[in-house]
Amino acid sequence: MKILDVGCGGGLLTEPGGSLFITTINKTQLSYALGIVFSEQIAGIVPKGTHTWEKFVSPEKLESILEPNGLSVQTVAGMLYNPFSGYWHWSENTSLNYAAHAVKSRVQEHPVPAEFVLKGETEQLRANAYASPGMHEELKK
Description:
Elements: E1 2-6, E2 19-25, H1 29-42, H2 59-66, E3 71-82, E4 87-91, E5 97-104, H3 114-118, H4 121-131, H5 133-140
Antiparallel strand pairs: 1-2, 2-5, 3-4, 3-5
Keywords: Methyltransferase, S-adenosyl-L-methionine, Transferase, Ubiquinone biosynthesis
GO molecular function, one term: polyprenyldihydroxybenzoate methyltransferase activity
Protein name: Coenzyme Q3, methyltransferase
């Protein structure tokens, strides 16, 4: 996950109105198949071990982490990488990669740690992946 903190002086963590920009990989069966299985293990586009499935996060989960911490998500846009051209493109499809823009709306006295929000999501998504026969066969490779 790439994070850019933009504030008007004091920075995002202390200043209402500061912007947070995040780019990351969505936590979907497709992103697992393409981001880890294909790009790391089959095509070798990136070195094995580059991506960690447990760190993938959906836009909805990201919003549920940011909002209790005083951040309001303004925009979510999909990002697609073309390995042949080497360029990234904006897209409406967020199933693989996406960028999010959030704005600090208030000072948060007691932030909610992300590990409490993310707990248990990985096991559920893995269970869903194995429930799909086609995905199960792809993940076994």
